Amino acid sequence: MNRISHWIDGKVVEGTSGRSGVVFDPATGQQQSAVDLASSAEVDHAVAVALSAFPAWRATNLSRRAEVMFHMRELVDANRKEIATLLTKEHGKVLGDALGEVARGLENIEFACGIPNLMKGGYSEQASTGVDVYSIKQPLGVVAGITPFNFPAMVPMWMFANALACGNTFVLKPSEKDPSASMFIGELLKQAGLPDGCFNVVNGDKVAVDRLLEHPDVQAVSFVGSTPIARYIYETGTKNGKRVQALGGAKNHMLVLADADLDMAADAAVSAAYGSAGERCMAVSVVLASEAIADDLVAKIKDRIPAIKVGPASEDGSEMGPLITGEHRDKVKGYVDGAPGEGATVVVDGTVGVPTTGFFLNPSLIDNVTPGMKCYDDEIFGPVLTVSRVHGYDDGVALINSNQYGNGTAIFTRDGGAARQFEFDVQVGMVGVNVPVPVPVSYYSFGGWKNSLFGDTHIYGPEGVNFYTRTKVVTKRWPDPRTSKVDLGFPQNR
Ligand code: NAD
To answer: How far is the CA of 149 from the centre of ligand 1 (A)?
Structure first.
């Protein structure tokens, strides 16, 4: 059985806890690897290594830190296929989707290449007579990242690129369901010239997470995952004095107004709902269809579903792979099975005719869904698209704004005024106008509102640099001996 251990101090370190987790091949349903699950003592070792690497890395000049990021950029670019193959093997997403994940992750490394510019402070000459004031950004120390199963390469890149470029050292706790991409990233960072100990991977579960949350030498924690765990991470981490950004789950609504191009809206809804088998925090999971066009839109979505090729990544032409585990597949299936009993209409039942091996489901479409039904209230995180019918703009926005989540949303319309009003009104962190999956480019920051984010700082981009640095303000005077005198008054600027 293939064994996946930890990456500490620039090398693979075998786990000693005696505990391990199962890594499945979701396309076959069989176990393919055992992953070591770290004990608290193993986490302590990784943090101690990161702490001892910090002073030298922090003192490494900005040009050199940028150079390491440039090398890493080249290495990830050259190894796109290798990384994507690891993703398809453990996550199950098809190769094209996995390559897309690597490409979007790479943008974050490219952003971090500009670190000399990003770390600039401010300067005020002659703030008082002969006195200059300036601010500088300094790294925090050892910072930790805890990541979900659905983007095993991109989400770590959201974190470590800026964290390392800012001069921090990093301990990553990836999802135990698909940990291999993180191990490979460790190797690539070493090849890129990152000194040993600056980037470490501890594989594990709640034991490792809890130790990171309480460890006195961990200064900050970035988390991406489900809302209940995000809330727990935020509450526990901040209670222990850490800076925390914890991104949670989502329920992303796509509002289709009556004037929208319905073929374009149907293409977008199908792509955004079923891509990556719906296991994306920015997936469209609810279409809000204006009454006047709802029947047409549902018919157009339904027509497109049979053409989606569901199958393993290894099979030519597969567009949608399996779900991550059998347990998760059964949970998703439960929402489709339960929908008719709640009064909804199952238009396409994706629980039938699925491949007999692996954790597959076909795409499902459920119409006439209203708040209060489980398939509306919960984040399903699978290939299930629900449709709720709304009277029009006001009704749609009210529904979006009353949802507990606020990660992403989109409006489909040809009315520029309505689109602008939507941007103004909607209580969601990332908004698309005729764009169904509005993941910001790496020089903006990513983050939701409400129960989709705990903490004040969005992840990556400029807010990522702020998260991984703290500011110091220096007030400096080099006195002119000719003007020196004793003055017991309180320093004033005028
Ligand atoms: P998860 O919350 O189950 O796990 C995320 C991480 O937390 C993993 O590393 C896991 O080991 C750890 N963890 C799990 N249970 C824990 C516990 N009880 N105590 C401490 N740590 C624990 O999430 P997942 O199933 O891996 O990922 C899917 C979820 O992530 C979805 O809800 C999705 O919306 C969300 N997500 C959000 C974003 C975003 O940017 N907002 C991005 C990707 C995924």
So the answer is: 7
Q: By the 8 A CB rule, do 238 and 244 touch?
A: yes
Instruction: Indicate whether 481 pLDDT > 90.
Output: no
Measured from the CA of 225, which atom of ligand 1 is nearest? 30
d(CA 445, CA 429) in angstroms, rounded, equals 10
Residue 301's CB: how many other CB atoms inside 10 A?
A: 25
Contact between 449 and 429 (Cβ < 8 Å)? yes
Question: Is pTM, for the whole model, over 0.90?
Answer: yes
User: Distance from the CA of 222 to the center of ligand 1, in angstroms?
Assistant: 12
Please list the residues that pair with 136 across neighbouring strands.
Answer: 472
Q: In the prediction, which pLDDT does 480 show?
A: 82
Closest CA to 304 of 287, 316, 279, 291: 287
Confidence of residue 328 (pLDDT cuts 50, 70, 90): very high
Cα gap 294→269, rounded to integer Å: 13
Question: H or E segment at 81?
Answer: helix 80-90
| SS percent in the chain: helix, strand, coil, step 5 | 40, 25, 35
Once rounded to an integer, what is the mean pLDDT over residues 266-274? 98
